[in-house]
Design brief:
It is a single chain. This protein has 367 residues and is an alpha/beta fold. It is built from eight helices and twelve strands. A ten-stranded mixed sheet has the order 1-3-4-5-7-6-9-10-11-12, sandwiched between helices. A two-stranded antiparallel sheet has the order 2-8. α2 links the parallel β6 and β7. α4 packs parallel to α6. The relative contact order is 0.15.
Length: 367
């Protein structure tokens, strides 16, 4: 599936870069926490609110009509050793006085195909930030901090969001370095319910993989047209490591841990059948009380077009049937169309972002 989307994603990257021309504020420096630094071990009175510890100066990428800005910075990951670019956006609520002591939920948006050297979700072509802001104003979404890192180490291949032996540690880049950068610069929750993913194609796969691999860090993923298993050619010669980075294996370990901790052995799932082109239908969310008594519960929504390759759909359906139990909740939202980053983004705003928001923590205004 990653191979099929490479041409599409290359076009999206080019359009994303072109869309930035003429932005009068582009290049302006921005800092989001010049007076709110804290020691890494400190948290404020809310208990699980992590205050910024080492804010940096970001560069403006583009300015939105509401005055908010998409910004960028270059990061050399202390743990992965990889150097790549990260884009970010904070909603207008972040700067309001009543939220100055509150954390905000983080949505990491990951692109499809190679995802290097850029991330097309920062562009006005997708209007991801504008639409999240509009949805938050309508009560259809939490006001997310949106973080958009480079997904892979070069333009030649993809890394399945994993530390493949002998290769740049792109798993650690996504799981550790980028979240650490976010914590250094913004008010975030320690609770995994403050962290989620939205991804297209290979980005959807990586988001799904991350919540299964690190449920103590991330809780929800919306995966648009993801692969069902790792398929980077870089895994050749490393079958054991490849298996241990597959969603099926990771889900099995999570289910076993939940059962050992006294959690349930089954979990209801919900699915959304194909609806109209603009309004996919979704079933009601399951009772949250079905989560394990201890441990972490995760939720994954698969966005699948009616024209996706049948073999890919069958593989993903098989995976979903295997993993939907215990602490793992899944659902499928269908839409008219094929493997398309624009379609996944449109579908996100037809119910799935609200579904995600219902499972995550939002900011709390001061009384």
């Amino acid at each position: 599936m990653k191979h099929r989307s490479a041409t599409l994603c290359a076009a999206l990257v080019l359009s994303a870069v072109a869309a930035l021309s003429g932005c009068s504020s582009e290049g302006d420096p921005v800092s989001f926490a010049p007076k709110e630094t804290a020691k890494p071990e400190e948290s404020n009175k809310a208990g699980d609110v992590r205050m910024p510890t080492h804010p940096r100066e970001w560069t403006t990428q583009r300015e939105l009509p509401d005055g908010t800005r998409v910004v960028r910075t270059d990061l050399t990951g202390p743990k992965s050793g990889f150097t790549g670019r990260v884009w970010a956006w904070v909603p207008k609520q972040y700067g309001k006085p009543e939220y100055k002591d509150s954390a905000f939920p983080v949505l990491m948006a990951l692109p499809g195909a190679v995802g290097y050297p850029t991330n097309y979700f920062f562009s006005k072509e997708f209007r991801l930030q504008e639409r999240i802001g509009e949805a938050a104003d309508k009560g259809e979404s939490l006001p997310f901090i949106v973080v958009m890192p480079v997904l892979n180490a070069n333009k030649d291949t993809y890394y399945d969001g994993s530390d493949i032996p002998g290769q740049p540690k792109m798993g650690t880049w996504i799981s550790d370095d980028v979240p650490d950068l976010v914590r250094e610069n913004f008010r975030t929750y320690a609770d995994p319910k403050g962290w989620g993913f939205f991804g297209s194609s290979s980005g959807g796969y990586v988001g799904m993989k991350m919540v299964l691999q690190y449920p103590e860090r991330f809780s929800v993923a919306i995966a648009g047209g993801p692969d069902a298993a790792p398929d980077s050619p870089l895994w050749n010669g490393h079958p054991k490591e490849k298996q241990e980075n597959s969603p099926a294996w990771l889900a099995e370990q999570l289910i076993k841990k939940s059962a050992a901790a006294g959690g349930p052995t089954s979990s209801p799932s919900s699915s959304a059948k194909a609806g109209s082109k603009s309004s996919p239908k979704s079933s009601p969310p399951p009772d949250p009380s079905t989560g394990p008594a201890t441990g972490h519960k995760v939720a994954i929504s698969f966005l699948m077009g009616t024209k996706e390759p049948k073999q890919e759909v069958a593989a993903l359906d098989k995976l979903r049937q295997e993993i939907t139990k215990g602490p793992i909740e899944t659902r499928v939202t269908s839409f008219e169309g094929g493997h398309d980053g624009y379609k996944y983004t449109d579908t996100l705003f037809n119910g799935d972002l609200k579904w995600m928001s219902d499972r995550m923590r939002g900011p709390v205004a001061a009384k």
